[in-house]
Amino acid sequence: LWSSKTPAEKAKERAAKEKAKAEKLAAKAKARAARDAAAAAKKAALLEAGAAHVVVTQEQDLVAEVKRITGGCGARIVFDPVAGPGVETLAQAMSSGGTLFVYGNLSGQPTPFPRLMLKNGLNMRGYLLFELTQDTQRLERALDFITRGLASGEFKPVIAKTFAFDRIADAHRYLESNAQFGKIVVTV
């Protein structure tokens, strides 16, 4: 192979590639540090809000922690907004006869039906809010339950941040940052 580049030009090109690679690694490390800091902050906030246990899946083995917390039994009910291949791990963390409610697909990936569902008699059920909102009686019961909970102070909504409607792009960026603990409110 023949190249019209001089050795100095080739060295400069290699140095630029190495610099780009180092910058990419540094950006990944910075993102990982930010993610870890956010996870620690959210764990602290959840414990402060009254959670008995918090499992940070980037740091802990989900199945081992759930089994430890439940005395080896596993979780009876699991709510999953992510879906995708992760349901396999969730199934491993469940007790026999448990139910996995899948209510979203944040992973964007196909969701398998874990073999453990059959072996351990597990249930996997999809859920959408429309089940409630399209059934007048169920909706009325739900609204009554929520209204009473808010009025009594039993339910205390957590607002992470409020944005004016003209700052909707900022609200969306804040949502994408995953830094919030609680709801993001946009006022009109």
Mean pLDDT: 88
Shape: extended
* Category from helices, strands and their pairing: alpha/beta
What's the story with the biggest beta sheet?
A: 3 strands, parallel
The share of residues in helices is 40-55%
Cα separation of the termini: 65 Å
Placed side by side, the strands forming the largest sheet appear as 1-2-3
- Strand count: 5
Cα-atom radius of gyration: 24 Å
Count up the helices.
7
Low-confidence stretches: none
- Determine the strand fraction and express it as a percent band: 15-25%
Summarize the helix and strand pattern as letters.
HHEHEHEHHEHE
How would you describe the overall organization of this protein?
With 188 residues, the chain is α/β, with parallel strands linked by helices. It is 48% helix and 16% strand.
List the helices and strands and how they pair.
Elements: H1 7-48, H2 62-69, E1 75-80, H3 87-92, E2 94-102, H4 116-119, E3 123-126, H5 130-133, H6 136-152, E4 159-164, H7 168-177, E5 183-187
Parallel strand pairs: 1-2, 2-3, 4-5
